[in-house]
Amino acid sequence: xxxxxxxQRVSTHGEVYTNPREVNAxxxxxxxxxxxxxxxFLEPACGSGNFLVEILKRKLQVVADRYSKSxxxxxxxxxxxxxxxxxxxxxxxxxxxxQERLFNIFFNHYFSLxxxxxxxxxxxxxxxxxxRNILHGDALTLQTVATENSPSNPIVFxxxxxxxxxxxxxRDFIYAHLLDQASHREMPLFSDLNExxxxxxxxxxxxLIHFLEIGNDQLK
Length: 220
Description:
By secondary structure, this protein is an alpha/beta fold. Helices cover 45% and strands 15% of the residues. The protein has one domain.
């Protein structure tokens, strides 16, 4: 895999991709967390998703090992695994590529297990989660990138957590507030080594929803 798309992108954005071998060597240093289904990972300059792809592969293997005998259980925990992965990048083509790669990792894994039993509703839930978790933004300014159709706004991430049975709880948080509050409290933003983590107030709290209906959440 090439580490450079173009010299211009290296010069302008400092964009150099990390090879899978190096990615996995780094992830092995936090192996337990990388293989915990609900542990959250944020890549603030995610590129096309080299780190996030390898994390998702590890998480989905754990989901399959534990839950593949029940398709519903697999789907439910796969949604949690995908929902635990976050990325930001300045370049829109990287965001599109990252979302597509992560979805394809999920779908290929899902299809290999259940073939013609795969559910479009589950695919839609995964696609919507990725649209909320992999964002076109600037991790330094903590803002989305302005486009012709949308002004720059604070980056907002969604938290996806299993509640009762197959129900998912979604809460939205402003990224800048997460960083500010975590800094003020001298506590980590995400608990990745089982330490206590500060949990700030969400800017929006959504009603419980079945994990197979998350794809309809965009209509609300």
